[in-house]
Amino acid sequence: MLTTVRPQYSHTQQHSLLKQWTMVLLLLSVCCALFGADVHAQQTLAAISSETTRTQTEANVAVIKSAYEAFSRGDVDAVMAAFAPDIVWYVPGRGPLSKTYRGHSEVLGFFDHFMGLSKGTFRLQVDDVLGTGDRVVVLCTTSAQRAGRTWTSPQVHVWTVKDGKAVAFREYEGDQQAEDEFWALQE
After folding, report:
1. Is 102 helix (H, G, I), strand (E, B) or coil?
2. What pLDDT shows up at residue 5?
3. Which positions of the chain have pLDDT values less than 70?
4. Angle value at C-alpha 138, between 132 and 140, nearest 5 degrees
5. How confident is the model at residue 186, as a pLDDT?
6. CB atoms within 10 A of CB 90
């Protein structure tokens, strides 16, 4: 029977260990295939590999959840700490916020821009967080007010996490045209 012991490691340490274990498992799998290991040994290796992937996914989901929690508290430093310095942040559409932002400085500029346009009324509610490997998907609802109008939209945020940091973000709006029109409203 396998016993799982989970010491506390930082996200970077966890990722490094996962890489090392993945290599060990790969080598063991090759040896099993080459030397005709029994089915039980192969099943054991598959179970260990599955646990490694699950642990990596859990760590990546935790990184993204902590970033959303920090955002809701207004803790921008903690939000930025979850992002790689060269994060690529993509906002689709044709509105004033639509473009690809690169790095902390541009992402902070994006945050300032939409908070300025909404005069601080922008809100984000996380509805669910899903993950597999280095991909984390957040189902959420965003809302804001500006120019006498209120806007609410379901969104899907897709993240890529590597080495314990978010390296890519892409959002998908429930109604892209309505979002573009809302952010382009003249005061």
Report:
1. strand
2. 41
3. 1-54
4. 160
5. 87
6. 14
Q: Which residues pair with 123 in a beta bridge?
A: 143
Q: Is 86 within 8 Å of 67 (Cβ atoms)?
A: no
pTM: 0.73
**8 Å CB contact between 125 and 144:** no
Residue 178's identity, in one-letter code, is A
Q: Give residue for tokens 């099993």.
A: 32
Q: Which pLDDT score, from 0 to 100, does residue 4 have? A: 37
> Tell me: the pLDDT tens digits for 114-153?
999 999 999 999 999 999 989 999 999 999 999 999 999 9
Cα separation, 115 vs 140, whole angstroms: 18
Architecture of domain 61-184: Roll (3.10)
Complete edge-to-edge strand list for the sheet that includes strand 149-162: 99-102, 83-91, 165-173, 149-162, 135-146, 123-132
Q: What is the pLDDT of residue 18?
A: 55
3-state secondary structure of 37: coil
Within 10 angstroms of residue 44's Cβ, the number of other Cβ atoms is 15
Q: Are strands 83-91 and 165-173 parallel, antiparallel or unpaired?
A: parallel
- The residue extents of the domains of the chain are 11-57, 61-184
